[in-house]
Write a structure and sequence with these properties.
This protein has 193 residues and is an alpha+beta fold. It has one domain (4-177): Alpha-Beta Plaits (2-Layer Sandwich). 44% of the residues lie in helices and 15% in strands. The protein is built from nine helices and four strands; from the N terminus they run βααβαααβαααβα. It has a four-stranded antiparallel β-sheet, sandwiched between helices. The two termini are 21 Å apart. Bound molecules: inosine-5'-diphosphate and magnesium ion. Inosine-5'-diphosphate binds at residues 63, 66-67, 70, 98, 128, 147, 150, 156-157, 159, 162, 165.
Length: 193
């Protein structure tokens, strides 16, 4: 079913530093997504910690588990790069790297609206790691970063964009990032057809 949705997109600090802001926004505009809010902000660690629910132990453990799976997929021994193989310990480290990443420079936060917007944006964004993301996706076209490289260099995977993963995430992130008076309703040309 096709229904209108709103979704939060962050052009992370690596996008800004690489001069890809215009290129990426342009892709969303051309596909028909309506920009209903947009701002450049250099956020505090506090906001970054709210964006990624790092106080939730189940979430910490799940990203740690996923990291171990990533190592399996790449056929690389996690013991080479990680001090501990406990998913919770790994997750804690990843969480602190995520906060460092989101606060290392200004980012651009957008609220996009359109039919099935959440899925459309996830499709356009591609797999978490650049080398696994298909050509034609943002991460696939502008990054070839491998999933474990972040662990070698003690940082998050630099993957250019964040996009809300589902309706609940989108609702939560919309409230976290935007005040009501920063969100604009207007007609794009195709709205009046
Ligand atoms: P997503 O951004 O594709 O939705 P999530 O699982 O929500 O991926 O992870 C949030 C962010 O954490 C990713 O965008 C990436 O920056 C970082 N990240 C996730 N998994 C790994 C990993 O295994 N290694 C390094 N960084 C990771
Ligand atoms: Mg996610």
């Amino acid at each position: 079913m096709d229904f209108r949705q709103q979704t939060v997109v962050l052009l992370k600090p690596d996008t800004v530093k690489r001069g890809l802001v215009g290129e990426i926004i342009s892709r969303f505009e051309k596909v028909g997504l309506k920009i209903i809010a947009m701002k450049m902000v250099w956020i505090s660690p506090d906001l970054a910690k709210k964006h990624y629910p790092i106080s939730r132990e189940d979430w910490i453990e799940s990203i740690g588990k996923r990291a171990l799976e990533t190592y399996k997929e790449y056929g690389r021994d996690p013991g080479e790069d990680l001090d501990s193989l406990d998913p919770k310990e790994i997750g804690k480290k990843m969480a602190s790297w995520l906060v460092d990443f989101l606060t290392e420079g200004p980012l651009v936060a957008m609220l996009l609206e359109g039919g099935n917007a959440i899925n459309t944006v996830r499709k356009m964004t591609g797999h978490t790691f650049g080398d696994r993301a298909l050509p034609g996706t943002i991460r696939g076209d502008f990054s070839d970063e491998r999933g474990y490289v972040g662990f070698v260099e003690k940082r998050s995977a630099r993957n250019l964009v964040h996009a809300s993963g589902n309706v609940e995430e989108a609702e939560f992130e919309k409230k976290l990032w935007f005040k009501e008076n920063e969100i604009h309703q207007y007609k794009r040309v195709e709205d009046s057809l």
